[in-house]
């Protein structure tokens, strides 16, 4: 799933290339991906793009007519073309959900792999009309998001820190991959309770979060969409590295599996050598 650093990379790429251009065509190939009807998507035709910004994991393409907002979800991506193909999109026979054509003959497709379709596209007058944006927590890289602001979010939260970092209503933009990376950098168990963290642990976690995300944003900066996924994978130290050696201590990176995802961690660095129970096996034993 694209997370805040990759989405920021997409935003920077698009903002540089599309601002000032007009949208000449907006073609929906997967009607289920379009979550709004007023304004209609036809309102984008002829609209001039005024800028591209990010809200958490949402991309917001602002025009003088409306905002085109999209969330790539778990398996969505953006495919950029310097010259847009002239082929006709056939609904149901392609991974393409939306095609945007621009006035200089460039454009992009929003695509989604797999059978579980979660990619979401909105055409709205105000980004806050998108429910997912309206309920976002603070952006962790906003200058106003200080260590004390972070500590205030943790106060009284009897929630495992892994889940809290991923909760978009608490902190915007962090998902499964970067929460693994942040917790590894902080040398903290994913099962630690937020409310139980002392000042030293909060300092460590906040510093790890900011440094991890800043480094990832810097890595994504300047890369075209086609290269962002591979850059993300190469930068991971524990996420997606099950069975490999931890780059810090050399212990074997382990996984805990859930219904539709997993977390990765280093026992030596994060849990005092303790192996966390595999939730799939725990369910079978009940």
Give the topology string: H per helix, E per strand: HEEEEEEEEHHHHHHEEHH
Rounded average pLDDT: 94
Number of helices: 9
Sheet with most strands: strand arrangement: 1-6-7-5
Fraction of residues in helices? 25-40%
Number of strand elements = 10
Poorly predicted runs of 5 or more residues: 282-286
CATH topology of the largest domain: Helicase, Ruva Protein, domain 3
Shape: elongated
Q: Structural class, judged by helices and strands?
A: alpha+beta
Describe it.
With 286 residues, the chain is α+β, with helices and mostly antiparallel strands. The protein has two domains: 4-134, MutM-like, N-terminal (N-terminal domain of MutM-like DNA repair proteins); 147-285, Helicase, Ruva Protein, domain 3, CATH 1.10.8.50. Helices cover 30% and strands 20% of the residues. The chain has nine helices and ten strands. The chain has helices at 4-18, 131-134, 147-154, 161-166, 176-185, 199-220, 225-235, 267-270, 279-285; strands spanning 23-28, 49-55, 58-63, 67-71, 76-81, 96-102, 107-112, 120-124, 254-257, 262-265. A hairpin with a 4-residue loop joins β9 and β10 (262-265). 36% of the residues are buried. Residues 282-286 have low confidence and may be disordered. Belongs to the FPG family. Residues 2-119 form the Formamidopyrimidine-DNA glycosylase catalytic domain. It catalyses: Hydrolysis of DNA containing ring-opened 7-methylguanine residues, releasing 2,6-diamino-4-hydroxy-5-(N-methyl)formamidopyrimidine.
């Amino acid at each position: 799933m694209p997370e805040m650093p990759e989405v920021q990379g997409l935003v920077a790429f698009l903002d540089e290339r599309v601002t000032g251009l007009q949208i000449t065509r907006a073609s929906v190939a997967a009607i289920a991906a379009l979550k709004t009807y007023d304004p209609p998507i036809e309102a984008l035709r002829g609209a001039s793009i005024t800028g591209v910004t990010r809200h958490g994991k949402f991309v917001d393409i602002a025009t003088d007519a409306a905002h085109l907002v999209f969330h790539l979800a778990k398996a969505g991506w953006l495919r950029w073309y310097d010259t847009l193909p002239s082929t006709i999109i056939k609904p149901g026979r392609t991974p393409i959900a939306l095609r945007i054509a621009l006035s200089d003959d460039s454009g992009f497709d929003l695509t989604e792999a797999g059978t579980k379709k979660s990619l979401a596209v909105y055409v709205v007058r105000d980004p806050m009309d998108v429910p997912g944006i309206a309920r976002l927590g603070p952006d962790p890289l906003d200058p106003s998001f200080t260590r004390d602001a972070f500590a205030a979010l943790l106060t009284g939260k009897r929630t495992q820190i892994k889940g809290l970092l991923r909760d978009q209503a608490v902190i915007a933009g962090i998902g499964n991959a970067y929460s693994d990376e942040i917790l590894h950098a902080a040398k903290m168990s994913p099962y630690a309770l937020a409310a139980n963290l002392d000042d030293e642990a909060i300092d460590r976690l906040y510093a790890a979060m900011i440094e991890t995300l800043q480094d990832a944003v810097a890595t994504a900066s300047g890369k075209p969409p086609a290269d962002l996924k591979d850059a993300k994978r190469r930068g991971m130290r524990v996420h997606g590295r099950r069975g490999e050696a931890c780059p810090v201590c050399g212990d074997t990176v382990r996984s805990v599996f859930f219904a539709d995802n997993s977390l990765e961690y280093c026992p030596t660095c994060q849990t005092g050598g303790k192996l966390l129970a595999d939730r799939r096996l725990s369910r079978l034993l009940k």
